[in-house]
UniProtKB/TrEMBL annotation:
UniProt-recorded Gene Ontology molecular function terms: flavin adenine dinucleotide binding; monooxygenase activity
Protein name: MSMEG_0569 family flavin-dependent oxidoreductase
UniProt-listed PANTHER family: FLAVIN-BINDING MONOOXYGENASE-LIKE PROTEIN (AFU_ORTHOLOGUE AFUA_4G09220), FLAVIN-CONTAINING MONOOXYGENASE
Lineage: Bacteria, Pseudomonadati, Pseudomonadota, Alphaproteobacteria, Rhodobacterales
Pfam family, one: Pyr_redox_3
Record's keyword terms, sorted: Oxidoreductase
Database matches in InterPro entries: Auxin_biosynth/cation_transpt, CHP04046_FMN-dependent, FAD/NAD-bd_sf
């Protein structure tokens, strides 16, 4: 990788008012607003635009929120199925059409290796294709750089294959035999279902993820929540913002028109369930005795959403069909805390426990002690630094098609104001 002269004079660099890092929906939304305002900038993308949508989603991937929530700037969902759930290729077509709707100054195949302060007060953005400087930097690289696997995964017998969500595209990627899927966020439950539909043998380690209704009282639950203003509530309005930021997404599916995922029903129909994985050694896999608690907590979340909708319907005198009473169709007879993978026919483990961002290249004081960005609606205290595309950056929809465009508009509007009167706004940052 080239090493650039970071002490070179500013005149030796390409200086622009704004550098955007990342060309997913967040970075391209920022570019849309900057282009419309006539602000010179560049979007640097280490792969190709929308790389994750194109190359890091499994074949049967689909949205879990309805198509009408796709609201990229100037480009709402254009199709004829607003209540459906776009498949992977349709999502790619949607984001590509959005990008084609304007002329973004995009540089693909450019990896940012360092962002730091220059002596002049500007930011230096060092890459494998040259050195930029900028007055403002928007980090829109997302939070999916590093797949999470626990340290004890290294102690599992090497004869048992280990894959991560990012490695899975189709059931054929998983070796013959039983696959233990670990994690019950949106990815975990959908990949478990994908394998079962293909006739594969699966077990599931159930974590603390919440679940949601799909169709409830005649409408998709997300339609009700949107109408109720639930998605407009900001992170500051949450009872515990830190806990909200860390919370796993509710699990449900958009597959085949959308449906709920009740793990108790899967267990009733033969899916082996365990609690959270706590350790591995050789062919031994250990679990916490928390299966029933995790199922109960998921149901509590599910029922909480139903109660919110019931209250809204009652308070507003809405004519809506009555709901079927909730009942638990299965519960564990015992908590299994240890198994021998060999005895259970487990030949693979599919880790679905999330990702972490990698900000090792970011040498600017804008991260907390845990490495999380410190900001208010994407605007950092460090003048000129911004983040976009993170979950709960401002609202529930910040990391999604629903609200990323609104967040991009807010951040770019702040940049436009600061470029117009930088010294005044630096003092009042």
């Amino acid at each position: 990788m080239p090493v650039h002269d970071l002490k070179a004079p500013d005149a030796a660099r390409t200086h622009l008012p704004v550098v955007v890092i990342g060309a997913g929906q967040a970075g391209m939304s920022a570019s849309f607003h900057l282009c419309r305002a006539g602000i010179a900038h560049v979007v640097l993308e280490r792969n190709v635009r929308f790389h994750a949508w194109k190359n890091q989603r499994w074949d049967s991937f689909c949205l879990v929120t309805p198509n009408w929530q796709c609201r990229l700037p100037g480009h709402p969902y254009p199709g004829d199925d607003p209540d459906g759930f776009m498949l992977k290729d349709q999502i790619v077509d949607y984001v590509e059409a959005f990008a084609d709707s304007f002329d973004a100054p995009l540089r693909e195949g450019v990896t940012v290796t360092r962002v730091g302060r220059a002596g002049s007060g500007h930011f230096e953005v060092d890459t494998d294709a040259g050195l930029w400087s900028a007055d403002h930097v928007i980090v829109a690289s997302g939070g999916y750089d590093r797949p999470v696997t626990p340290p004890y995964a290294a102690d599992l017998d090497p004869s048992i294959a280990q894959l991560h969500t990012r490695d899975y595209f189709r059931p054929e990627d998983v070796p013959e035999g039983r696959c233990l899927v670990v994690g019950t966020g949106q990815s975990g439950v959908q990949l478990m279902e994908d394998l079962r539909i293909a006739g594969r043998d699966v077990s599931l380690a159930v974590g603390p993820a919440p679940r949601s209704p799909r169709i409830y009282r005649g409408r998709d639950a997300t339609d009700w929540l949107f109408e109720m203003g639930y998605y407009d509530r900001t992170i500051e309005e949450q009872p515990d913002p830190k806990a909200t930021e860390a919370k796993t997404n509710h699990y449900l599916s958009g597959r085949d028109g959308g449906h709920e995922i009740d793990l108790r029903a899967f267990a009733r129909d033969g899916l082996p369930l365990y609690g959270s994985v706590t350790g591995m050694e050789g062919t031994t896999i250990r679990f916490a005795p928390d299966l029933e608690k995790n199922l109960d907590d998921a149901d509590k979340s599910y029922l909480g959403i139903r109660d919110m909708i019931d209250t809204y319907i009652a308070e507003n005198g809405i004519d809506a069909p009555e709901a079927e009473p909730f009942r638990k169709v299965w519960r564990p007879d015992e908590e299994i805390t240890e198994i021998d993978a060999r005895d259970h026919g487990i030949t693979s483990v599919l880790w679905c426990i999330g990702f972490r961002p990698d900000y090792g290249w970011l040498q600017v004081d804008c991260l907390d002690a845990t490495g999380r960005p410190v900001h208010r609606r994407g605007v950092c205290d460090t003048f000129g630094m911004y983040f976009l595309g993170l979950g709960w950056l401002h609202t529930w929809g910040s990391g999604r098609f629903l609200s990323v465009g609104e967040d991009a508009a807010f951040v770019t509007d702040r940049i436009i104001q600061r470029l117009a009167d930088p010294e005044k706004l630096r003092r009042n940052a």
